[in-house]
Design brief:
Largest sheet: 2 strands, parallel
Shape: elongated
Distance between the termini: 76 Å
Radius of gyration: 23 Å
Strand order of the largest sheet: 1-4
Structural class: alpha+beta
Number of helices: 3
Order of helices and strands: EEHHEHE
Strand content: 5-15%
């Protein structure tokens, strides 16, 4: 005869004080938008750092940190050139297109 198939039990959180185990917590990690086939953003010249961060779907402090790596000091309310914004967008996997107002 064949051996019985092993039952699958999902990993659970450790239980405390005799309570039944809980299912694993769902976190926000790995929930990026996978349906974005072409990562293209249209940004003006100059662009405000906060607006660039919103277009890249990241927090402004991450964009500020990457600008500092380029030897520039900017705050989220400051403007940066299109060339700098294009470099930052490229690091996030986006292609930047300049728009004219």
């Amino acid at each position: 005869m064949s051996e019985p198939a092993e039952e699958f039990y999902p990993e659970t959180q450790p239980s405390f004080s005799g309570r039944p185990p809980r299912p694993p917590k769902i976190t926000a990690r790995g929930l990026e938008d996978p349906d974005d086939p072409e990562k293209v953003i249209c940004i003006p010249d100059p662009v405000v750092v906060k607006d660039l961060a919103a277009a890249l779907r990241v927090k402004p402090f991450k964009v500020v940190a990457q600008i500092m790596e380029l030897r520039q000091f900017k705050t989220p309310d400051d403007s940066i050139s299109f060339k700098t914004a294009e470099i930052i967008a490229g690091r996030h996997g986006y292609t930047a297109i300049e728009t004219f107002a």
